[in-house]
Amino acid sequence: MTTSIYHRLQENREQVFRELYRSSYPAVAKKLKGLGARREDARDIFQDALIVLYEKSRRDASFRLDHPRAYLCEVSRRLWLRKQGSELPLTGDDANDDQFAIPADFYAPPKSDRRLVRLLERAGQKCLEILQAFYYHEWSLGEITRQFGYSSVRSATVQKYKCLEKVRAYAHQKTEEHAKAME
To answer: For the whole prediction, is pTM greater than 0.85?
Structure first.
């Protein structure tokens, strides 16, 4: 793929994306798994990396892709870290290398109330994942049932409710502690 990726994408975008998926997705998935991503996350991030590649090729018709797997791995790593709200560890020449630049609107850091995040973390990892799946990713309770291994939708509903109650209890406790501290 040393010819201009722009021209290849213009000629047969579907074929190029299929080739990139076959040749690069396994390496990207492995790299992201090492960073804590689930299979579904890796798939979504990889698809976003393909969009970044496509947009970059459209902005710069001379953009060449000599090492597509390495390029997509690095862009995927950066997207994953940005999505997680992590600082991007760049050193040396990487900090100035815009070859892997990601548009600013991709996974803009969420505006979050740090207090709410602490409450969710305190409720436990499982609760955090369930509530995130339901409210942030907008998964159905059926999908949560399958993904988290519950025996029925009712079980998933009860678990989600218990998680919400934990968060509410911790929030109430914090409010009382704050009120006592103000006395």
So the answer is: no
**Residue 138 in tokens:** 């907008």
* Tens-digit pLDDT profile for residues 128-145: 889 888 888 888 999 999
Distance CA 166, CA 33 (A): 29
User: Shortest CA distance to 49 belongs to which of 33, 31, 25, 16?
Assistant: 25
- Alpha carbon distances (Å) from 139 to 35, 136, 152, 161: 23, 8, 15, 15
Which residue range forms the structural domain that includes residue 67?
5-100
Which of residues 100, 131, 161 is at a domain's end? 100
Torsion of CA 14, 75, 47, 50, to 10 degrees: -20
Q: Is residue 139 part of a domain?
A: yes
Residues 95 and 26 in one domain: yes
Determine what percent of the chain falls in helix, strand and coil, rounding each to the nearest 5.
Answer: 75, 0, 25
